[in-house]
Amino acid sequence: MAGWEGQREKVVVDRSEGFGERLLGVLLDRAHEMPPQLVAPLIAEEVARIGGRDVSILLQDYDQMLLLPLPGRHLMVGEPELIDGSVAGRAFLDVVIVEEPLAAAVRVFLPLLDGSDQVGVLALTLDSVDDDDRRLLRRLAGLVADMLVTKNSYTDRFFKARRREPMSVAAEIQWSLLPPLRMTTPQVVVAGMLEPAYNVAGDSFDYALNDDILHVAVIDAMGHGLNAAVLATVAIGAYRHARRADVGLAELYAFMDSAIVEQFEPEQFVTAQMARLDVGTGRLEWVNAGHPAPLLIRDHRVIRSLESATTLPVGFGGDQPQVSELALQQGDQLLFFTDGLVEERQAGGEQFGEQRLINVIDRAAREGMNTQALARTYSHSLMRERRGITTDDATLLLVEWNGGSADHLAVLET
């Protein structure tokens, strides 16, 4: 008989289901077949099980000015909340739980995060809040956000709740093309904005994080209205197709160029910037096809524009793209933008200009905001500086590189 020395000690694992697991488990078990209109009642029921009441789901509107209440059975539907200056807005912008003391109760505001994209805010009232409540509510908010995003793909309820005004057909097309406005990982953060939100036509952006490479594209299709939106759709579709074939930037540009040449008249084209960032090393490559040069932001100020050899816009046919390279430092930010941000004319006829853009960035960057809040602040500040004038689309995409590794997220804590 073998000795006891060679035998492994049996590990006893507690598989009992605690209250919090049961609560989240019920929501998860029902979520996959839950019709969109029943999401709100189920969430309200789950919150009631921990003594919560007055549940509100607040979704950000398309131009990121307000948090708009989602209507639904058992939800408290109040007035829209300003993102700037409200308690709900602080939870949204700072991505933190905010607690507002009430008479004999606490109003809790939790950011709704799907992955790292910010969907909105979950608000509810409890008699009191302790650390167990906070942990459970944080996980509940994450599950609610996942449900909203999943159901969003086959219902119009959430789209309609986010709108403050009618949206053009061109804008409908552009918003349907977009990836999430925000992505956050330990190594890299991306945040984007489109203006005018309800009438954008030819501007768009796209990104994808494939292993250690962040792929980024910002485009501006010539013209206005529906024709520009169709041109942008083909450009983004061609970009994604080539990107997913794992080709380099030169081949990617050539494929996009061929797609536009084959489908449109010779005078129709797309200006674009395509970039690849190694999130492990900080090595950046980019092609500038007729766009304003990106800006490099370091230590909270613009230190240079990334001037480079210019490649002809996509659709002119046959140009050899010029690929530029740069080694980033940890904490560097890159601002990609379309010409609508700097070429808008002031009342006296003068262009807004790159220097005014740099001044706005330098002021906002010193305030210590996260990347998503910075992108939003840049866009809204520029709109105010232009006195609300927008005769062309204006798009920006902010990328922050922090380096390091994300491997620790794949290790379970013991």
Keywords:
414 residues, alpha+beta, Phosphatase 2c, domain 1, six-stranded antiparallel sheet, 17 strands, EC 3.1.3.16
General description of the model:
This protein is 31% helix and 27% strand. By secondary structure, it is an alpha+beta fold. The radius of gyration is 24 Å and the shape is globular. α1 (19-31) runs parallel beside α4 (131-152) and α7 (225-243) packs antiparallel against α8. It folds into two domains: 19-160, GAF domain (Beta-Lactamase); 167-407, PPM-type phosphatase domain (Phosphatase 2c, domain 1). It has helices spanning 19-31, 39-48, 87-94, 131-152, 157-161, 169-177, 225-243, 249-263, 354-365, 371-385, and strands at 53-60, 66-69, 81-82, 98-102, 105-114, 117-126, 182-184, 188-195, 203-210, 213-221, 270-278, 283-289, 295-298, 301-305, 323-327, 333-337, 394-401. The strands form three sheets. It has a six-stranded antiparallel sheet, sandwiched between helices. It has a six-stranded antiparallel sheet with strand order 7-8-17-16-13-14, with helices on one face. Its EC number is 3.1.3.16. It comes from Actinomadura rugatobispora. One of its GO terms (molecular function) is protein serine/threonine phosphatase activity.
